[in-house]
Amino acid sequence: MQAVKMYTTAVCPYCLRAKQLLKAKGVEQIEEIRIDLDPAQRDHMMQITGRRTVPQIYVGATHVGGCDDLMALDAQGGLLPLLQAA
């Protein structure tokens, strides 16, 4: 299973939804980077993704995007293969 990294904040309903979906797909560990606690991480997230909103989700080296992007990827049948890629 690929490593999953997620840029999050403390109170973010989209972050919670994304985590629920990932756990339902068998992801046991998500590396959470709290940008509300670390402004430097927020700046880094914005530089590498070009986005300001959370969550920003990475599966391995692939930037999936936000919660809606994750849901759409799953609906198209692309999430599980991405998670299981070697």
Polypeptide structure, described:
The protein is an alpha+beta fold and 86 residues long. The chain contains 4 helices and 4 strands, in the order βαβαββαα. The chain has helices at 13-24, 39-49, 67-75, 79-84; strands spanning 4-8, 30-34, 56-59, 62-65. The chain has a 4-stranded mixed β-sheet with strand order 2-1-3-4, sandwiched between helices. Strand 1 (4-8), helix 1 (13-24) and strand 2 form a beta-alpha-beta unit. Helix 1 runs parallel beside helix 3. The longest helix is centred in the first third of the chain and has 12 residues, at 13-24. The protein is globular and about 35 Å long. The N and C termini lie close together (7 Å).
Q: Please list the strands of the largest sheet in the order they lie side by side.
A: 2-1-3-4
Number of strands: 4
Question: Share of helix among residues?
Answer: 40-55%
Q: Unreliable runs, pLDDT <50, ≥5 residues?
A: none
Give the count of helical stretches. Answer: 4
Mean pLDDT: 96
Query: How would a textbook summarize the main sheet?
Result: 4 strands, mixed
Q: What class, by secondary structure content?
A: alpha+beta
Q: What percent strand?
A: 15-25%
Order of helices and strands: EHEHEEHH
* Rg, Cα atoms, Å: 12 Å
Q: Between the first and last Cα atoms, what is the distance in angstroms?
A: 7 Å
Shape assignment: globular
Summarize the structure.
The chain is α+β, with helices and mostly antiparallel strands and 86 residues long.
Key features of this structure:
86 residues, alpha+beta, four-stranded mixed sheet, 4 helices, 4 strands, 44% helix
